[in-house]
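Problem: given the chain below (283 residues), write out its structure.
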Amino acid sequence: MIRHKWIHSRVLLTSLLPLIVLVTVVFFRCDSPGNSGGLFRSLQGKQDRWTICCLRVSILDHEAICNQYADLLRRVRELDAGKVRVVSDATSSAVYYGEYTKISEPQTDRLIFPTQYQRDIELIRRLSSGNSTPFFGAQPELLERGDAPRHPQWSVFNASGQYTLHIAVFYNTGTFDQRREAAEQYVGALREAGFSAYFYHGMVKSHVFVGDFEEADIIHTPEGVHWGPRVEEFVSNNEAEFRHTTENGVIRKRRMPDGQFVAPQSVLRQVPRADEFSVMEQY
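Solution.
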């Protein structure tokens, strides 16, 4: 299978993982660990660094306003004044606090924010100025988006069709932290096999898409959108690769409301415009 022809220690392997590993997880627990073999334990790199975006302002005098709010944060005894900073550009300014690295939760291997982060963001959200709570909307934000893609032309924003098939998602865990590299390697392997494939790197997850489809290739019904004949033929000709969505290289069955465990089917996604990052973050 193409899915398992990824680069391991810079060498292309063809049989590192079993063909498909079916992992049963509880419904809505998509972040549970699976049997992902040696690939994900060996692809180790620098961990994502996070900060707290306390406030963002995009009106006139945005930098001066943010500096005033930053001074408020610096006067809070429970916070470290040296960790407060203001970042500005031509159109907006933001107040940031701290720097954090997620830690591995022993029971699940998923990455979670440390206790200090939880304390800091809860405190910041509760702070008031007069009758207002200016930092109530504080949110985590990546300090850096990671290394630039090696093949930016493979971005899903460059897909030639109106729709593309979402077949894989990668996310960092306590033993694997190169989701971006894994996604791009998978896309490269698909392209070597002759498929149109694309990636998208979100704040937490990286996604892989395959195929270029048009409005005529989907069927709209009262129950929702369904694959048309061309999409179904495309998937049927590559059943093991494209029928289901994988997470970190494995298929994870989910428990449905009726109690049955079902492997998630790949989903047709509308190709976004380059400025539609918020849409992509919902995947």
